[in-house]
Amino acid sequence: MRLNLDRRRAALLGASLVVATVAGLGAQAVLAASSPTPDEVPAEGGRTLGFAVSWWDEATSHDCPELIRGPTMRSARPPFPGPVTGPKGEDLCDHPTLVPDPKIPTMDKAVNVGLNLDGDDGSGKPPPGACAHQNYVSPAGETGIDNQWGRIFGCWSSYTNNELYNSLMRGGAWSLLIEVVGVDDLRTDPEVIVRVQSGADELILDTGGMPVAGASMQVSNDPKYRWESPGRIVDGVVITTRNADMRVPSSHLDKNPFIRDARMRIELAPDGSAKGLVGGYQDVSEQWRKYVGYARNGTSHNKAGCPAVHYVLTKNADGHRDPKTGRCTTISSAYEFKAVAAHITHPKGMQRALSGAERVQ
Fold first, then answer.
1. How far is residue 141 from each of residues 115, 126, 136, measured CA to CA in Å?
2. Residue 361, in any domain of the structure
3. Strand partners, 193
4. What's the domain range around 40?
5. Is residue 174 part of a domain?
6. Considering the entire predicted model, what is its pTM?
7. DSSP conformation class of 207
8. What domain count does the chain have?
């Protein structure tokens, strides 16, 4: 995935030109600089905004009454409360309900980061397909925020800093590119298309190790990491209007999220950068599988966490109710990201529009 010398020089030259232009003209310059070449002009018309994700993390307010300093999905050091084995020596990761729920703390304050995923504010019965759950208020005052995963890990100390994951990204392990296609106005536009795609190139970094704005980045050929949704721009904020499953590239097992019914909110900055949220649902069974894997590879104390994690996941699951069991199988979640302006190119002959067959199943 390393850039060859010619491509790296080209990318750096492009970055220098865009940064210089941004300094003089602001976001409108980035809109022009990020536009496709004549043979890449999208059928949707308008211009294309290009971004390379420079930072990514689970979203939560971390406003917790008691931070759990050990139990995590990344660390082998927890001491979770409770026994390591069942009454007859059973493995609690195989039989987590053999012991009572230790009731580890969760973040139950009224404000949390995220998106309204189910269109409900929590004032009445849960909508079809959902289970009853706490609805939050966003820091900006929006009601009906769904982020039950953030309710859990907001109380886990290791989730307060995601530098390892982002250092891997900056080290070339993966890259994630965003395009907003068909933009006629940066403040208000009723019809745009948002695309999220893995990159074939590593991020170009400055001398301080941070991503450079305006570099040329090519989209990967891998259709597994392509996502698309129509959207609109309202007061400089891009809001997607159709939910679709998203898979985010990563070389870090714990951070390779498969996000069901994903949607996005992207705030466009005057300097051409962006920040925003991805909201959606994670499979409870997958999160449970990940924790059990870490518990088995860690110390015996980690196995004491299996009942705690099992109970807290099943109690807070709020999406995709199974009609046979009546239980929800997914848990609402949110991810925050920051992105720098990028000139995004596509492999020659690659179909720009995503077909139904290419969408993540």
1. 12, 21, 9
2. no
3. 181, 230
4. 5-346
5. yes
6. 0.81
7. T
8. 1
Helix (H) or strand (E) holding 212: none
What is the helix (H) or strand (E) element at residue 20, kind and residue range? helix 5-25
What is the residue-level pLDDT of the chain in tens, covering all 361 positions?
Answer: 344 444 444 454 445 444 444 444 344 434 434 444 333 434 457 899 999 999 998 888 777 766 665 444 444 334 466 677 889 999 888 999 999 988 888 888 889 999 999 999 988 899 999 999 999 999 999 999 999 998 988 877 666 566 777 888 888 888 999 999 999 999 999 999 999 999 999 999 999 889 999 999 999 988 888 999 999 999 999 999 999 999 988 655 455 678 999 999 999 999 999 999 999 999 999 988 888 887 777 654 456 688 888 999 999 999 999 999 999 999 999 999 999 999 999 987 654 444 333 333 3
List C-alpha distances in Å: 251 to 13, 71, 198. 28, 23, 12
Q: Which two tokens stand for residue 303?
A: 């196995």
Other CB atoms closer than 10 Å to residue 4's CB: what's the count? 8
Please tell me the total number of residues recorded for the chain in this structure: 361
Q: Which two tokens stand for residue 213?
A: 């704005």
What does each C-alpha distance from 125 to 73, 134, 261, 321 come to in angstroms? Answer: 33, 12, 21, 14
Distance, CA of 278 to CA of 246 (rounded, Å) = 10
In a domain, residue 216? The reply is: yes
Of 328, 314, 302, 355, which is closest to residue 79 (Cα–Cα)?
Answer: 302
Strand-pair category, 47-58 with 176-183: antiparallel
Residue 22 lies in a domain: yes
Strand partners, 339: 53, 274
Whole-angstrom Cα distance, residue 269 to residue 278?
17
